[in-house]
Model the fold of this input.
Amino acid sequence: MPNYKKGDVIALGSDHGGFRLKQEIIKHLEEKGIEFKDFGSYTSDSVDYPEIAEKVCNSVAAGQTVLGILVCGTGIGMSMAANKCKGIRAAACSETFSAKFTRLHNDANVLCLGGRVIGPGVALEMVDSFIGTDFEGGRHERRVNAIMEIENK
Ligand code: RB5
Done:
């Protein structure tokens, strides 16, 4: 149950399509005093998103970082790659309700955003909801466990 508490580290990653938005997220987390580890990309040069997704997800799955945020052009490629990584429940979201409920109900540990889809205002609101919402547990725990059993089959 990876609920965020003060002092925990958030893993960040983007490709070139998400680089600008990732930099906005970095500024936002710094202003809020939330610690993060940036797994790149560090420039807007073209880069393949699966390798960044894998680095972020390995860190989350190993417990070195509590939650991850991945940004590509649509958020979709990053989420596809992230959901191939063991222990990862990644959600591609475009509005705040989903970003909040994917923590509450799915215990999502990686949020995927589309730098070419949403503006920074909505994106930062989603980041706050995602980090600031705890998993509800209860009946949702059984369902999340059932999701995780699929990757062991
Ligand atoms: C890169 O051009 C783009 O394909 C990538 O950022 C992402 O949107 C893929 O899903």
Summary: The CA atoms of residues 87 and 123 lie 24 Å apart. The helical segments are 19-32, 49-61, 76-82, 96-104, 120-132, 139-150. The chain is about 45% helix and 15% strand. The radius of gyration is 14 Å.
